[in-house]
Amino acid sequence: MFELEAEITTWRRRVERGSSLSPREVDELEDHLRARFDLELGMTPERSPSRVFNTVCDELGEAAALSREFAKAGRRRWRPLLLAAWAMFATSFFLPISTWVETGLLDSDALAVLAYASQRPYEFLGDLTTALVTMGDAPSMVWFGAAVLLPNLPLLMTLPTLLGSRRPDRRWLRWVLGGMGVVQLGLGMLRVFSPAPFPYEGAAVALQYPGAGYWLWSGSFAFAAAALWLRRRDWATARPKTSIA
What we know:
Blueprint: H1 4-18, H2 23-43, H3 49-60, H4 63-72, H5 78-92, E1 98-102, H6 108-117, H7 121-135, H8 138-156, H9 159-162, H10 171-193, E2 196-200, E3 203-210, H11 212-235
Antiparallel strand pairs: 1-3, 2-3
């Protein structure tokens, strides 16, 4: 015997397993499926409900094709934000993390120190890694690796989402990314209004300001958090949960 609700439940599970559609998008398809079923059944009452249902499902198409159509329609508003976050994050390693403004005459030694302090992150990390490998200092390498990985780990954890994972994101990850973005951008603004002095031979001869690399790195966390919050809205089904008494 044909049972519409059971058939729709089976269809919905098949679509969710075979596509990258969010629950909210599947809700929209289900509404369309129900409307089409009622219309077709009313227009052709001589046909069996099961046959009408199968015809409507065929008209909607396969799960993979539905995913492509929704993607073409640009329904995933979160994805451009997450792509921007990763672009900012990657670019930040090729830009100076700090900039310096001279407030006095600098000699060659001071200039060399400031030039090293203003290195782009990938150059600094490369130099330090080479030095640690040359010295063979295993404990220092472990601590160095942890110090580099841990601040960037929350953003790295969004990579599966960027690559199309259908698993819902963890709530704490959104809060951590948002908190890091706000804190780091706030510290950057504090440094703009109260730059750190560089003492040399008893006098402050340069002031340190956040560089372009710092702003992009900090902003990437805020962008990623915003993307995950938008994705959460897409993944939250619009249908109220029904309880069985």
